[in-house]
Amino acid sequence: MTLLHYLVLSGVLFTIGAATVLTRRNAILAFMGVELMLNSCNLALVTFSRIHGTLTGQVMAFFVMVVAAAEVVVGLAIIVSIYRARRTVSVDEPSLLKN
Amino acid sequence: MTTFVAPVIDWAALSAILVIAGTGIVGVLVAAFVPASSRRTVQVVLALVAPLAALAVVAWRWSVVVGGGESTLVAGQLAEDGPALAAQAIILIFAVVGFAVMASRLPNGEEAFAPQGAAAPGSAYEEAARRAGLEQTEVFPLALLSLAGMLVFPMANDLLVMFVALEVLSLPLYVLSAMARRRRVLSHEAALKYFLLGAFSSALFLFGVALLFGFSGSISLPDLGTAAATTVGMDGMAVVGFVLVLTGLLFKVGAVPFHAWVPDVYQGAPTPVTGFMAAATKTAAFAAILRLLYVAAPGFGWDVEPVLWAVAIASMLLGTVAAIVQTDIKRTLAYSSVAHAGFALVAIVSLSEQGPSALLFYLLAYGLATVGAFAVVTLVRERDADGNVTGEATHLSQWAGLGRRHPVLAATMTLFLLSFAGIPLTAGFVGKFVAFVAAADGGAWPLVVIAVIASAAAAFFYVRIIVLMYFSRPEESERPGADAVEPGALTRASLVLCALGTLVLGVWPTPVLDLLAQAAKFVV
Amino acid sequence: MIDYSWLLVAIPLASAALLLLLGRRADAWGHLLGVLAAAGAFVVGLLVFLEVMGQPSEDRIHDVFLYSWIPAGDLHIDAGLRIDPLSLTFVLLITFVGTLIHIYSIGYMAHDAARRRFFAYLNLFVAAMLLLVLADSYALLFVGWEGVGLASYLLIGFWNHNLEYAVAAKKAFVMNRVGDMGLIIAMGLLFAAIGSVSFTDVDAAVTAGALSTAQVTAVGLMLLLGAVGKSAQFPLQAWLGDAMAGPTPVSALIHAATMVTAGVYLVVRSRLIFEASPTAQLVVACIGAFTLLLGAAIACAKDDIKKSLAGSTMSQIGYMVLAAGLGPIGYAFAIFHLVTHGFFKAGLFLGAGSVMHANGDSTDMRTYGALRKVMLVTWLTFGACWLAIMGVPPFSGFYSKDKIIESAFVGEGWQPWVFGGAALIGAGVTAFYMSRMFFLTFHGKARWVEAGATVAPDDPRPVRHPHESPLVMTVPIIVLAIGALGLGFALTLGNGITGWLEPVTGHYDHDAHHAVLPVPVITVTTLVLVALGIALAWRQYGMSPVPLTAPTGSALTRAARRDFYADDVNEGLVMRPGQHLTRTLVYADTAVVDGAVRGTASGAVGLGQLARKLQNGYVRSYAAMILAGVVLAGIVLHLVRM
Amino acid sequence: MTNPYVPILVLMGAAALLALGGIGASAVIGPKVYSRAKLEAYECGIQPTPHAIGHGRFNIKYYLVAMTFIVFDIEVVFLYPWAVAFSDLAVFGVVAMLGFLALITVPYLYEWRRGALNWD
């Protein structure tokens, strides 16, 4: 198993995450897709960090985690708020804004 | 293991950011400890004073920096140079006028934000909160924190700082978008869309960062440029990485095809927030694009021009044609903002020397008119059967005949619309002129021709609104009648500032253009 | 004083701003301030004029630098004023006639609640027009050009509670836009070719031959398009008649002294460009000759006194454009006719306003008749202007128009015959329609009933109480009538106006070129035709009874009544698409959908619909759009790299 | 020279054995008496059906706590690298981390004052 495999894994995870965002109607699941994308980025960052022999990538990974956490909180707050108002978290359902 | 050397931090250079971020944090404490009766006053004062103070600081830094004082800060992560300071100044100006609109109340004491953000729309709890006169004063610290992110953005000299700034400016805006007092369901939907798409695009941005890091072994923009010029192979990674990073930024400016959130969010978000975010976010993101293109891209030696051309053309055309068929004033303005993202891109598409100053001037002109136009939107309200003022009258047909009933307000709106349309003697005209000249200078003649045609077509739908205000009579329709309310003192001040700025920059732009021309040099 | 010439624009502008900003607080004295501002501008103009007069004729061109407007790299635009005999002639005309119209409006608008706002717009109009003629570059001229358009839009639509008037205002706006496009494109071409749009640079470049013939022709034709739009020449003439919807002083201001003359000004100002391109110059002359006949025909057919006058304006401007298109021989005469026309046409309009005022705002000439007995002053002054416009000596129109007709006969080949013939016929027709108007209004039998008189129940005649207008209205008309009487003679004294304009229009040796016919023959023929026209009109409208409703008339008459179907043509070519982009689309989606279904919606709407479909409200498709964008961008970059 | 990770492997094996052994042993030899009290949620968590609170939905408080937890828990991630490099970072590190902790305290104070930490 070489470092390249990690990169491939990261790419696969990123694709799965993006596919989740594109296909899931449930806001929470779509959001989980985004989180998966962020974490695949972390994996790539750490791997590249290893390849280049620097710590930059790992440091970035820490920041990404923290930012992702903040994003989770804001996202969940919005989703919960919508759920309480509409009893659904489908991203298709609330389509009043369009055209 | 190398020994750790503490980075030298030039606090003076960071002071504008610190003032804003610090005030935001103080604002959180105010929300926690100041009694409810005086909380709002304190918050409003803080939110208005802080940008002014920061503006003064930026002016001071300007005097230090222009004339050769450019430098990189904190181990090269931030850059303090002319474009960065100019962008910060412009963002702070938008913050002053934008916050003033946010803080304003209607004559009946109603403010723009929900009494209790957490309360479900239409619930008994919300009704109780409304009766109790609760106010969600957290909007001001949130706006300040977002502003802090925007101020970091133009200075960001490496991709990590850029990413963090991107998130810091976005997260509070997601929340603010959900806070509209009326039409809360729309507001929620706007926030959800903005959030999901924003998170999605920042994930794309981050993956781009990872790829660029993998390609060059560094995340600092100047290093990236150098590495790209020297590294052989791995082109694919660099190309994809660069495109992804650019995507994240173009998303924020709302350029086609990354624009889809713009109309929905601009329509759903509370109007004062829309005005502020349309003007300030766009400026901040464009400032970041500037640095990315002017510092990193030349080293790449790639032709990023075709991509920028395509995006600019698509934005101008789609923004214009879509705006023509809209029936909602906020959506119309949103699509016009998409078109304006295209026009602004024209200025830097050929990476000419005048590009940055032209772009910044364009953004200043556009932003003043935007904040002003959305401020006018907050004032045109529906009335219920009893004549009480209710929600904003955003359907275009409700604006018919406004000019006859409220000549001054309609004239102000007309001024902003004319500026959008780029009619001479308004800031918008000068902005378009310098932007197009900058593009033509770089040899992008065909693009300039397209831009001129697009701006002529765009003028139609601005004129359409003007015609509607002055020459149509209100139609019989099922929609409630609409009328404008008296602006509060703060909104009035904001409108006067925006209108004056639009006029003065149209009639006598020379001083500002000269200032910006001094600011065109990036530190590497 | 020349250094202070910016006051010319600043005074009325400041007054307009003050009147608009103060709002109702200024209602009591707003109109007086408006008059003072116009008069102040006239005084400044006079002082500048006297100073320039005191200078030797070769030093009479001044460029007053104001400030650097848009510095953008190598291309920069300065704001400056051009003070020379041409611009000063316009300044004096605009401010003098403008002031009289302001005074007249005090009386005319006395009962209008929004009189202050009206004066603000009038001042704005004067300021914009002054900026237009004083600008030292096409860019600044364009600012004034747009300002005039905007102000006229506001003034024509002043009574916008009347939907028809509002539509007329919009029509004027849209048609003017078409012309403006020409001006913009001309500026773009100049910018691209020489990097400057200041008159000095452009003239220098054209003289030096820096532009190819094709370029000059293109610029010339585009400038002409602008001029045609503003001056209501064929094919953009249709808005003028509808623009009569505005208050009558506005019609006077727009038609006589200001807006419509802008096109003539533009052509004369750009004379070097037109001289460098014979093609463009020929087109100018052709348009002028055609419009002078077209306008005259329309004027003959209209029963509405103001619309008939509008046709006459079109026709008279046609004379000026024709003169300007003749080349160096005609410039000075074009301006000369413009000045005298400014006086007598303003007099005619204000007289018409006075008549309308007396007849309960009715504009239908068929309900007038025999008014000379009750409106003596108006009759006399209108009569003076009538004689002037027909070119009866010694009234001012004779001096200016006769010169144009003579000049039209100078040249070689078919041109002198065609242009001269058109000008000659035009003179006869002018005499006919003006006499028709004069006799219909003031002579013949009264086709109205004095209020209070006993009337048979089946009498179709309207009840009126005609009366002479107040002094504040008649005095300006009298002044204008005096101008119509003596100005032409005064300005020809000692080669007056042609010599004065020479630094701008260039020297032309009139003795070196001869008309294809002897001058006395032309003059006599003209006068005979004029006499014929008057006689014909007298026979038909002065002596015989006139029916209250117009007879069906010949096909030609009917066509002329409908402005030769210009509306229908414009409707299809300009208004329909314009409306699609403006009004119809505003109202609800149904209209749009219907429009799309019927297939009449323009391409923009279709594209807009497509954009709407893309914007389906689903987050997932938005995300897909973003991703697709990324992929496309990546592919493009890869392709570029390869 | 064996792999240095072998002892860890051994330790993990022992731990697993102990844990599984304990559960297995209690399953085999323990008494099996069930009562209502034993089936109830223990110490924390929510009441199961049929008496679900709020029509079968979680109380909003759980979300609040969860969000608070996420923020504070994750922010602390910076403490780990800091602890590792503590001695190298010296005074700079201490000051920086104190500043960071002070900032973290601000939202805590906010939550506390606005009552987000009160269960009822």
From TrEMBL, chain A:
<comment type="subunit">
    <text>NDH-1 is composed of 14 different subunits. Subunits NuoA, H, J, K, L, M, N constitute the membrane sector of the complex.</text>
</comment>
<keyword id="KW-1003">Cell membrane</keyword>
<dbReference type="GO" id="GO:0050136">
    <property type="term" value="F:NADH dehydrogenase (quinone) (non-electrogenic) activity"/>
</dbReference>
<comment type="function">
    <text>NDH-1 shuttles electrons from NADH, via FMN and iron-sulfur (Fe-S) centers, to quinones in the respiratory chain. The immediate electron acceptor for the enzyme in this species is believed to be a menaquinone. Couples the redox reaction to proton translocation (for every two electrons transferred, four hydrogen ions are translocated across the cytoplasmic membrane), and thus conserves the redox energy in a proton gradient.</text>
</comment>
<dbReference type="GO" id="GO:0042773">
    <property type="term" value="P:ATP synthesis coupled electron transport"/>
</dbReference>
<keyword id="KW-0874">Quinone</keyword>
<dbReference type="GO" id="GO:0048038">
    <property type="term" value="F:quinone binding"/>
</dbReference>
<dbReference type="GO" id="GO:0005886">
    <property type="term" value="C:plasma membrane"/>
</dbReference>
<feature type="transmembrane region" description="Helical">
    <location>
        <begin position="28"/>
        <end position="48"/>
    </location>
</feature>
<dbReference type="InterPro" id="IPR001133">
    <property type="entry name" value="NADH_UbQ_OxRdtase_chain4L/K"/>
</dbReference>
<dbReference type="InterPro" id="IPR039428">
    <property type="entry name" value="NUOK/Mnh_C1-like"/>
</dbReference>
<keyword id="KW-0520">NAD</keyword>
Automatic annotation (TrEMBL), chain B:
<feature type="transmembrane region" description="Helical">
    <location>
        <begin position="236"/>
        <end position="261"/>
    </location>
</feature>
<feature type="transmembrane region" description="Helical">
    <location>
        <begin position="444"/>
        <end position="468"/>
    </location>
</feature>
<feature type="transmembrane region" description="Helical">
    <location>
        <begin position="489"/>
        <end position="508"/>
    </location>
</feature>
<dbReference type="InterPro" id="IPR001750">
    <property type="entry name" value="ND/Mrp_TM"/>
</dbReference>
<keyword id="KW-0874">Quinone</keyword>
<dbReference type="GO" id="GO:0050136">
    <property type="term" value="F:NADH dehydrogenase (quinone) (non-electrogenic) activity"/>
</dbReference>
<keyword id="KW-1003">Cell membrane</keyword>
<feature type="transmembrane region" description="Helical">
    <location>
        <begin position="332"/>
        <end position="352"/>
    </location>
</feature>
<keyword id="KW-1133">Transmembrane helix</keyword>
<feature type="transmembrane region" description="Helical">
    <location>
        <begin position="192"/>
        <end position="216"/>
    </location>
</feature>
<feature type="transmembrane region" description="Helical">
    <location>
        <begin position="273"/>
        <end position="294"/>
    </location>
</feature>
<dbReference type="GO" id="GO:0042773">
    <property type="term" value="P:ATP synthesis coupled electron transport"/>
</dbReference>
TrEMBL record, chain C:
<dbReference type="GO" id="GO:0016020">
    <property type="term" value="C:membrane"/>
</dbReference>
<protein>
    <submittedName>
        <fullName>NADH-quinone oxidoreductase subunit L</fullName>
    </submittedName>
</protein>
<feature type="transmembrane region" description="Helical">
    <location>
        <begin position="471"/>
        <end position="497"/>
    </location>
</feature>
<dbReference type="GO" id="GO:0042773">
    <property type="term" value="P:ATP synthesis coupled electron transport"/>
</dbReference>
<feature type="transmembrane region" description="Helical">
    <location>
        <begin position="622"/>
        <end position="640"/>
    </location>
</feature>
<feature type="transmembrane region" description="Helical">
    <location>
        <begin position="6"/>
        <end position="22"/>
    </location>
</feature>
<dbReference type="Pfam" id="PF00662">
    <property type="entry name" value="Proton_antipo_N"/>
</dbReference>
<feature type="domain" description="NADH:quinone oxidoreductase/Mrp antiporter transmembrane">
    <location>
        <begin position="135"/>
        <end position="422"/>
    </location>
</feature>
<feature type="transmembrane region" description="Helical">
    <location>
        <begin position="416"/>
        <end position="435"/>
    </location>
</feature>
<dbReference type="InterPro" id="IPR001516">
    <property type="entry name" value="Proton_antipo_N"/>
</dbReference>
<feature type="transmembrane region" description="Helical">
    <location>
        <begin position="86"/>
        <end position="106"/>
    </location>
</feature>
<feature type="transmembrane region" description="Helical">
    <location>
        <begin position="250"/>
        <end position="268"/>
    </location>
</feature>
TrEMBL record, chain D:
<keyword id="KW-1278">Translocase</keyword>
<dbReference type="InterPro" id="IPR000440">
    <property type="entry name" value="NADH_UbQ/plastoQ_OxRdtase_su3"/>
</dbReference>
<keyword id="KW-0813">Transport</keyword>
<dbReference type="InterPro" id="IPR038430">
    <property type="entry name" value="NDAH_ubi_oxred_su3_sf"/>
</dbReference>
<protein>
    <recommendedName>
        <fullName>NADH-quinone oxidoreductase subunit A</fullName>
        <ecNumber>7.1.1.-</ecNumber>
    </recommendedName>
</protein>
<dbReference type="GO" id="GO:0030964">
    <property type="term" value="C:NADH dehydrogenase complex"/>
</dbReference>
<keyword id="KW-1003">Cell membrane</keyword>
<keyword id="KW-0560">Oxidoreductase</keyword>
<dbReference type="GO" id="GO:0005886">
    <property type="term" value="C:plasma membrane"/>
</dbReference>
<dbReference type="Pfam" id="PF00507">
    <property type="entry name" value="Oxidored_q4"/>
</dbReference>
<dbReference type="GO" id="GO:0008137">
    <property type="term" value="F:NADH dehydrogenase (ubiquinone) activity"/>
</dbReference>
<dbReference type="GO" id="GO:0048038">
    <property type="term" value="F:quinone binding"/>
</dbReference>
